[in-house]
């Protein structure tokens, strides 16, 4: 992954605008990471599993969006609003369905297996999705240009450039995260999700349809991933089959440093991870390619001191 | 009883001979048709052997006549090497197969016995490889020590990584290994002193003045220099195999099993969970590191592309295919995973996809693997005799 526009700026332009640019990129990345991490945390909450195919569902969401766009172009639909709506609907809808299907047929049957088995099976599901994109999407092994679906007007403040589309993306991301928060905390479905997360057996005794709640959660998380994939595609103006793996590792790390099972922890972790990456690029005199190395090193160090995350895991060990 | 023992030994010998012949033809197979025929023959043969009770009898023969059985295996290996004495590529494949098996033995010790997750097998393999590359190029350290240093480096990094995580349970060990695997690859790609994406060249192995890169000549017959490496790799894998087998049979193995199956129960019986997890993790990574160092000195070249998360997943595919915790399953599984795509060029491109699908299906429908781990038999052959 790249730093976005940051790398194009020469080092001697080390002024407020330069730093502002990086901070803004960091916010953008943080929103995407937080959305991925929220998915991880939701799945972990209801089923105590890590669904590692999450990142590849995200990539597939981006590719479905791209394919929808190209299809619309070919069909002669050029209205930007219709295009955007169709891309969003197709991508989010299909990925929510895919997430629910994966949960129904691959994760739920394995939920009593050792953690290693569930993690391995979801890693392999991710590999299947990733390889399918590479092999079956036309020219899929190369990065594909992603269309500009949002207005690209940009305003300059000194050396700080604010692209309208990134503003919209950040606003949309924050809104969606807020909506998820509202859904989990203030609706019946959210109550059911929290109940299942707390104690699935008691929740079932209380008449909650366990399977339906799990499927809804996986659908929700995967839809979120699809949106994050589209945002990632629009931000970088390209989608690439290998993106998802790195985003999954980052999202998982973010969820864990925040504290697995805690939505606020996931959001915090996402922004923290982005902050570490950006700080590495701005502060350290190393090539920006080191930012992943430093970031993952920090994750390992953080785990050494706070093994259950910054906001500790809420559920206690049940024997 | 003596009669039965003799027939079971005969069955074991015939079984080994059949497998040897099969592997020779498999390594020889050039085109895809012959490979497909071999595949069908292998599957059919395995099915027949299983249904007719031949496989069970051969296994029993191996268990009751350990020395004779082991001699047969060594002899079979010598036959394979002799047949391919001048075929560089086949020998390289064989040696690679053996080294991957060595890593998988380590992974089996970690995952199959103790239940410590390790999703960075290829990264630890890479730590060994790069250690060997640096040491052999820039220092005068004797090469056997370089191999050991590769293993120690991997073991050290592994234990530093895992130590903090052991205070908790759950998915944190998984995250740390995944994060380490990803980090290791990115680090290699951007680090110029370690060659960046181009990698490093490594001098050939040299033991007490004996250069392994020179092909030996025995009784007027010249051999490919890979013969040296194959024999040494075989010795290495055999040593690791025996050590792991011994660990499994000892009270250490019992403790490891207890830790995997139920940590709470194990600790109430006074088993020190952290100690055994660290032990298993360190020994496993030591194996991976040594194999990596050997691999680097054999191929003469290391590059980051060999040590990605995808490679770690391939290693885990081998472990799962062979049956988690089953050492004997590793070699056939490694042969399926590594040789099949080499021989069947048509599936080369699709291999990651196919393995992933295969592993998912196995985990869903036969979670104990193709060749499941057998119950612990305290007296050899006791379970079968009844």
- Rounded to the nearest angstrom, the radius of gyration of chain B is 21 Å
DSSP helical segment count of chain B: 17
Q: Give the strand line-up of the largest sheet of chain B.
A: 1-6
**Roughly how much helix do the residues of chain B carry, as a percent range?**
over 70%
Shape of chain A: globular
What would you call the quaternary organization? heterodimer
CATH class call of chain A:
Mainly Alpha
Question: Radius of gyration of chain A in whole Å, from Cα?
Answer: 20 Å
| Ends apart, CA distance between termini of chain A | 42 Å
Unreliable stretches of chain B (pLDDT < 50, length at least 5) are none
Global outline of chain B: globular
Number of domains of chain B: 2
Order of helices and strands of chain A: HHHHEEEHHHHEHHH
Q: Would you tell me the structural class of the helices and strands of chain B?
A: mainly alpha
Q: Unreliable stretches of chain A, pLDDT < 50, 5 or more residues?
A: 1-13, 315-319
Please report the total strand number of chain A as a whole number: 4
Provide a descriptive summary of the structure in words:
The complex is a heterodimer of chains A (319) and B (386). With 319 residues, chain A is mainly α. Chain A has a single domain (13-138, 146-305), classed as ABC transporter involved in vitamin B12 uptake, BtuC, CATH 1.10.3470. Helix content of chain A is 70%, strand content 4%. Chain A is built from eleven helices and four strands; from the N terminus they run H-H-H-H-E-E-E-H-H-H-H-E-H-H-H. Chain A has helices at 16-47, 54-75, 80-107, 115-136, 164-186, 188-198, 200-205, 210-236, 243-258, 263-283, 291-305, and strands spanning 144-145, 154-157, 160-163, 238-239. In chain A, strand 2 (154-157) and strand 3 (160-163) form a beta hairpin. In chain A, helix 2 runs antiparallel to helix 3 (80-107) and helix 10 packs across helix 11. The longest helix of chain A has 32 residues, at 16-47. Chain A starts with 15 loop residues before the first helix and ends in a 14-residue tail after the last helix. The relative contact order of chain A is 0.19. Chain B has 17 helices and six strands. The two termini of chain B are 12 Å apart. Helix content of chain B is 73%, strand content 3%. Chain B has a two-stranded antiparallel ribbon. Chain B has a two-stranded antiparallel sheet with strand order 2-3. Chain B has a two-stranded antiparallel sheet with strand order 4-5. The model of chain B has no long low-confidence stretch (mean pLDDT 79). Chain B has 386 residues and is mainly alpha-helical. Chain B has two domains: 1-83; 87-309, no CATH class. Chains A and B meet through helix 4, helix 9 and helix 11 of A and helix 7, helix 8, helix 13 and helix 16 of B.
């Amino acid at each position: 992954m790249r730093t976005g526009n940051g790398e194009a700026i020469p080092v001697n332009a080390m002024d407020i605008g330069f730093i502002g640019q990086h901070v803004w990129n960091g916010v953008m990345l943080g929103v995407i990471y937080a959305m991925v991490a929220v998915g991880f945390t939701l799945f972990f909450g209801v089923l105590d599993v890590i669904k590692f195919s999450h990142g590849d569902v995200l990539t597939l969401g981006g590719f479905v969006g791209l394919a929808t766009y190209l299809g619309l172009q070919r069909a002669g639909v050029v209205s930007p609003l219709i295009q955007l709506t169709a891309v969003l609907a197709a991508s989010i809808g299909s990925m929510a369905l895919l997430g629910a299907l994966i949960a129904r047929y691959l994760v739920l049957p394995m939920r009593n297996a050792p953690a290693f088995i569930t993690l391995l099976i979801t890693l392999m599901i991710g590999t299947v999705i990733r390889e399918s994109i590479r092999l079956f999407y036309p020219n899929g092994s190369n990065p594909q240009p992603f269309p500009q679906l949002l207005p690209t007007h940009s305003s300059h403040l000194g050396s700080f450039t604010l692209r309208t589309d990134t503003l919209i993306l950040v606003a949309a991301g924050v809104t969606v995260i807020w909506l998820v928060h509202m859904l989990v905390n203030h609706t019946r479905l959210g109550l059911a999700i929290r109940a299942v997360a707390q104690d699935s057996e008691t929740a079932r005794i209380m008449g909650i349809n366990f399977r339906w709640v799990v499927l809804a959660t996986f659908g929700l998380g995967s839809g979120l991933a699809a949106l994050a994939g589209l945002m990632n595609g629009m931000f970088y103006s390209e989608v690439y089959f290998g993106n998802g793996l790195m985003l999954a590792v980052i999202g998982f790390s973010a969820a864990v440093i925040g504290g697995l099972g805690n939505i606020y922890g996931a959001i915090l972790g996402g922004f923290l991870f982005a902050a570490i990456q950006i700080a590495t690029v701005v502060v350290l005199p190393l090539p920006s390619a080191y930012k992943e190395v430093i970031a993952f090193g920090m994750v390992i160090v953080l785990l050494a001191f706070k093994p259950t995350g910054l906001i500790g895991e809420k559920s206690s060990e049940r024997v | 009883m003596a009669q039965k023992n003799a027939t079971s030994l005969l069955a074991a010998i015939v079984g080994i001979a059949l497998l040897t012949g099969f592997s020779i033809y498999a390594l020889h197979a050039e085109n895809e048709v012959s490979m497909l025929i071999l595949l069908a023959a292998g599957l059919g043969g395995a099915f027949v052997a299983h249904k007719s009770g031949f496989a069970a009898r051969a296994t029993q023969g191996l268990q009751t006549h350990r020395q004779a059985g082991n001699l047969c295996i060594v002899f079979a290996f010598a036959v394979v090497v002799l047949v391919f004495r001048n075929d560089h590529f086949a020998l390289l494949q064989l040696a690679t197969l053996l080294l991957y098996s060595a890593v998988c033995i380590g992974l089996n010790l970690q995952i199959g016995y103790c239940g410590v997750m390790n999703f960075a097998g290829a990264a630890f393999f890479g730590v060994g490889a790069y250690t060997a590359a640096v040491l052999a190029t820039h220092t005068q350290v004797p090469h056997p020590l370089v191999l050991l240093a590769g293993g120690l480096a991997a073991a050290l990094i592994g234990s530093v990584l895992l130590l903090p995580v052991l205070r908790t349970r759950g998915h944190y060990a998984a995250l740390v290994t995944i994060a380490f695997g990803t980090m290791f690859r990115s680090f290699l790609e951007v680090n110029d002193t370690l060659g960046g994406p181009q990698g490093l060249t490594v001098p050939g192995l040299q033991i007490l003045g004996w250069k392994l890169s020179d092909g030996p000549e025995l009784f007027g017959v010249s051999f490919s220099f890979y013969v040296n490496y194959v024999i040494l790799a075989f010795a290495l894998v055999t040593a690791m195999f025996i050590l792991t087998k011994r660990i499994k049979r000892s009270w250490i193995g019992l403790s490891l099993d207890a830790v995997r199956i139920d940590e709470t129960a194990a600790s109430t019986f006074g088993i020190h969970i952290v100690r055994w997890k660290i032990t298993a993790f360190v020994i496993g990574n030591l194996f991976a590191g040594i194999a990596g160092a050997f691999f680097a000195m054999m191929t003469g070249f290391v590059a980051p592309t060999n040590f990605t998360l995808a490679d770690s997943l391939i290693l885990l595919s081998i472990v799962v295919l062979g049956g988690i915790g089953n050492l004997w399953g590793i070699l056939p599984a490694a042969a399926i995973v590594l040789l099949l795509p080499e021989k069947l060029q048509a599936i080369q491109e699709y291999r990651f996809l196919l393995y992933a699908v295969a592993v998912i299906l196995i985990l869903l429908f036969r979670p104990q693997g193709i060749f499941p781990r057998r119950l612990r038999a305290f007296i050899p052959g006791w379970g079968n005799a009844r």
